[in-house]
User: Which sequence fits this backbone?
């Protein structure tokens, strides 16, 4: 049986990444391009999970199909889990990735490298037209660097060092990041849920 899933994101980079991970003859991926007029979702939840569920629910209710969404963030231990759910707007509304990285560097300047543990977390949510819902998490552990390194990726990638590689996400090959990232780990779990039909 072929399962149809609508991706609840307008980010083309994410659509590609998710398509790659979910690739299967049994899964047909639809996007919001297939459903003009789908409402925008305000990401005002208190947690990554709240936002992911809200996005998937709105898209499932609009399209009448099972929807898949995700919400991610960076959690820094020494900052009690900040920036977390406000990762995109850490330095203020409409700020750039660079603004966020500069703010993080400033906050971390007196904190030793041993105490600079951080993790990227991704929560993915599946929501069916019958109202069944399931969330899964993917986590990637790392260290916040003292300076920005690398040109790849986006967001906090230049500051996020993956100890196993001794490189930041921005220095790693895209293909490598896409295997070990928080999003990859969450979407591999999503694929199992879809294929095993256990939503
Ligand atoms: P989103 O929920 O995936 O849109 O992520 C929210 C914010 O978290 C982004 O705007 C980035 O600041 C940060 N973020 C999420 N995933 C990554 C990543 O893989 N690398 C760097 N920053 C990320």
Assistant:
């Amino acid at each position: 049986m072929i399962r149809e899933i609508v991706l609840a994101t307008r980010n083309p980079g994410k659509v590609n990444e998710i398509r790659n991970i979910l690739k299967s003859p049994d899964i047909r991926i639809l996007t919001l391009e297939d459903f003009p007029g789908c409402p925008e979702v305000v990401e005002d939840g208190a947690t990554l999970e709240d936002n992911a569920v809200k996005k998937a629910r709105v898209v499932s209710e609009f399209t009448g199909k099972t929807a898949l969404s995700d919400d991610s963030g960076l959690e820094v231990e020494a900052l009690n889990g900040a920036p977390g759910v406000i990762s995109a707007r850490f330095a203020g509304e409409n700020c750039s990735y660079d603004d966020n990285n500069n703010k993080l560097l400033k906050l971390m300047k007196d904190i030793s490298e041993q105490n600079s543990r951080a993790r990227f977390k991704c929560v993915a949510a599946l929501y069916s037209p019958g109202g069944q819902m399931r969330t899964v998490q993917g986590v990637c552990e790392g260290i916040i660097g003292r300076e920005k390194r690398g040109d790849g990726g986006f967001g906090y990638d230049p500051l996020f060092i993956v100890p196993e590689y001794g490189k930041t996400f921005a220095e790693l090959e895209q293909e490598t990041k896409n295997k070990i990232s928080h999003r990859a780990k969450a979407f591999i779990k999503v694929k199992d849920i879809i294929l095993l039909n256990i939503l």
Summary: The radius of gyration is 17 Å. Residues 48-63 form the longest helix (16 residues).
